[in-house]
Amino acid sequence: MDPLPTSLPANLTSLAENGDQTDNSNCSSVSHEWVYSFVPVYILSISVLGMALNIFVLMVFILHKKSCSVAEIYMGNLAVADLLLTSFLPFWAVSVWNQFEWKFGLAMCKIVNVAIPMNVYCSIYFLILVSIDRYLALVHPLSHQKLRRPKCAKISCVLVWILGFLLSLPKLINRTVEEFSCYEEHYLISLISDFMFLVFGFFIPISIILSCTIKILQTLRSRFMEEEKAKSKDRKATTLVLAVLFAFLICWVPYYLLKIPSLLNDFGYLQDCNSRIIMFYCGQIFMYLGIFNSILNPILYVIVGKNFQKKVRELFKQWNHRRGSTFSLISTSTKITRSVKLQLQAEPLKAAE
């Protein structure tokens, strides 16, 4: 079982890991043809759009003349995680197109199956940092200011990347390739990895995020009732953060919750055909809903993020100003060149007179 299937997206359940298992257990046959035809196109579309949109977000943050705020540092790292996630999706798409045959070798089998769960871990922990930052900014605006400095934010991001890699190490150790199949070799390591994914990738992060979000909403409500305008900038940033949080929850919570019946299936429960078929289709749908989040975040930045919109406008104005200055410089240079040429042409005529 895989928390983030790459060589076989449906291997959330034992049914999906072996498409023929239903027939061997007198279950109804489940056709995978729609998976082979539809899924590669969908995954490649998400990959291309995700890479383009997240590169755009990163360019705005990097090229803008003003330094990033703490929330923007976290959002920028979240965009990097989404970018890395979408950049590895083509390997998955090709594998599905080849009916889940892995033709990229052992090294890529390990790298892809570590990179994707690692970036999902990092994404949710960056959202934790964003939630805590908004919580401190709104609920405790006068205290803990040292924790909201850009230097602390950058150190926190480095620690999140390290933590994401460490939590994904079981996949690196356990992955192997045999007869064009990229799979997990040891069942016990796979089971431990699934429990880690459920606890450290869902229950603990969601508890922290929901706790911070409830406090943030309560604070925003009280300030709105008091018609306080002093913190309008914080409210704008918080609106974007809340939109990104809710989008993540909508896209990924169904997938995480499916891990519970999937683990029960591993322990011998929910073995009937109907349960396994339902888990197969839910695994497909919820997985593809989850990766859709990688292109949803940049869209939310543009639609909801007022500060991000302002940065984009300022950046375009900056580019237009540079272009205008360049054209003006070229035009002036051309005029000077023509003037010099005319003077040089006129001097022989004067000398002849």
Automatic annotation (TrEMBL):
Domain of life of the source: Eukaryota
Pfam families with a match to the protein in the record: 7tm_1 (PF00001)
Keyword Phosphoprotein: no
Topology in the lipid bilayer: Multi-pass membrane protein
Matches recorded under PROSITE patterns: G_PROTEIN_RECEP_F1_1 (PS00237), G_PROTEIN_RECEP_F1_2 (PS50262)
Any one biological process term the GO annotation gives: cell chemotaxis
Keywords: Cell membrane, Disulfide bond, G-protein coupled receptor, Glycoprotein, Membrane, Receptor, Transducer, Transmembrane, Transmembrane helix
Residue ranges crossing the lipid bilayer per the database entry: 41-63, 75-94, 114-132, 153-173, 195-217, 237-258, 278-304
G-protein coupled receptors family 1 profile domain: residues covered: 53-301
GO cellular component: external side of plasma membrane
Compartments, as annotated in UniProt: Cell membrane
A single MF term (Gene Ontology): C-C chemokine binding
Family per similarity comment: Belongs to the G-protein coupled receptor 1 family.
Protein name, as recorded: Bradykinin receptor B2
Originating organism: Cyprinodon variegatus (Sheepshead minnow)
